[in-house]
Fold:
Amino acid sequence: MLRRVPNRADEPDSILFKGYTLNPFQVQAAHAMEAGDNVLLAAPTGSGKTLVAEYAIDVAIRAGKRAIYTSPIKALSNQKFRDFKNDGLRVGLMTGDLTLDPDAPLVIMTTEIFRNAVFEDPARFHDTDFAIFDEVHFVDDVDRGTVWEESLIFAPEHVRFVGLSATIANLHEFGEWLRTVRKQPLSVIEHTRRPVPLSHRLFHPDAGVFQLEERQRAITFHERAVAREGRHGLRQGRRERERSRWGDKRERAQGRKVPFGPRPYVQLLDEVQHRGLLPLLYFCFSRKECEIKAERSMGRRLLDRAERARIEELFHDICARFELDVDADPGLRGILGRALSGVGYHHAGMLPIHKEVVERLFTSGLLKMLFTTETFALGINMPARTVVFDLLRKFDGVQMDYMKARDYLQMAGRAGRQGLDKSGLVIAILEDVDLMEAPLSRFHSGKVEPITSRFNLSYSTILNLYDRLGSKGLLAAYDKSFAAFQAQKGTPATRAKKKAAAHAALAARMQVLRDAGYLDDDGLLPRGKVAQRVNGYEIQVAELLFSGVLEQMDMHQLAATFTALIHEDRRRPDARSVREPGPLMQKANEAVRRFVAIETLQGIAQPIKEPDWSIAAAVDCWSRGGSIEDLERLGHSDAGDVVRTLRMAIQMMRQVRMQVGKREQLGARLEEAVVAINRDVVDAKRQFELG
Structure:
């Protein structure tokens, strides 16, 4: 397992761990953990951060204690569980979808599960030595950053942590805050060298592939092309070249409706293929673009006969393992058809089992081009020779804007396979406006934006902290946040202003909870106690329970209602098909709107989510034995989104079933609803066990 290897007298001892001689930054982290310190480590993708996490786990187990490994997504948690299991460790897993051996010496969980456990039962961590936070820079995430901060602030004092991240610009500032809030020694370690260096390039259809230093030359090429053909003629010329190259007749014959327009990426893919720079990860910021580009790339000769035979054999082996019926599943047949051309796509709208099949095909090395969204870059160890960015801009919820350098580097870090490639190639496709205006040096410099606090206490957190600490302790929570720490850099007036604003926002939410009957001066009221024990959509659940509307619903209506609390239609409002909910659903709407009305009176900027019934018909059909095709047809959403919503609804119904107490009939119907929808592709436990 572990032994020290003496070096020359003028060098520190190295460490041999699990057959690896640790490199200097890993040795530094190991020494810190042996000395009793916490560790905050920033290092590029693929540089060996996981080995530091494994060392922390080893330290804990050797001491007769436990370790917790947290990750931002369920897929990564599942992957880590399998990795550690293969190492011969006894490992548990807690993701919401799955709970396996939660008392194991090592437990893998999502960060949300960790935060919830800290509030619900801090005593369960009495024998925990280390909590490892993978992707700790998620503190900066707009939607989920608060979860990371709350976990770091409120975890039991004796629990040490290891924070792992890619590059963080203000790493030492973040470390100082952690020292302050945890009141424990902390070693901050920064490693910047990648084991496989990256080579960054740019592409524009008028200039080809070029380096950042050649940007002006590329602009000149483009301006000459515009002067020669005019902007309209230039666009038309590109369109004609692409149509000639790919043959729209073939596409029409196959019944595919493909948007018509210039396709500069084809020229780039030709170049990458010609130079032998495959396999390739192609990042798009649209699910539809992933699918379209994969379909259009199927005509390439990427595989020989032997490779196609291996693809088909591996595909059927995977399907047999997961007990999948290829003949009955057109989605699987589509995956195989693309795979036999060496191509695939991967995005969150796919069924989870379909994503699993694609991932395993890609890790085999047989898929040469994978078109995917940015979620693929998050922690999942699937590198390629080349990474291509379809755009450098993406929709930020309000408008199209250039992505953060940190996001770019996270995705770019998938380029270059250790032991196979001397370097990884990263190419960004530029539109005309990008060629002129994009802050390209920001992406290529390796410098990233500093992380900032997104601290914003949820109603669930407020209720938990109020129950434990009272109003004074709750108000003091802001003072422990990274937001308060960062505010200290300002003038006294600025600090006071920010603190006052934070306290005012908290006071407004507290008043909402008072007015809505969740708490009073003496503590939590029955509504508040129910909401306290529900993780996610806690207010909506409490309102529905206390309105009595859930008591009137059958199991099918219950399934539809809980999915409506969670689901958010991704389509534009004007593209949605409006389904008028029935009388009980209307009552559910009214129950939730009671709370929203109180929030409005208090000036809450973002009220709680109201039910979205757009997939209610699909859920009702599924609960009555419907098929996957029914989900896709009636859900008006990607099947993967519907399945993910159903899995979350199952978690929530199980939580509520534990809260209903004497309402035995409601509890029984909730269980019936869970059984009815937790089948086939929705059954996460079965899929996991088969895999």
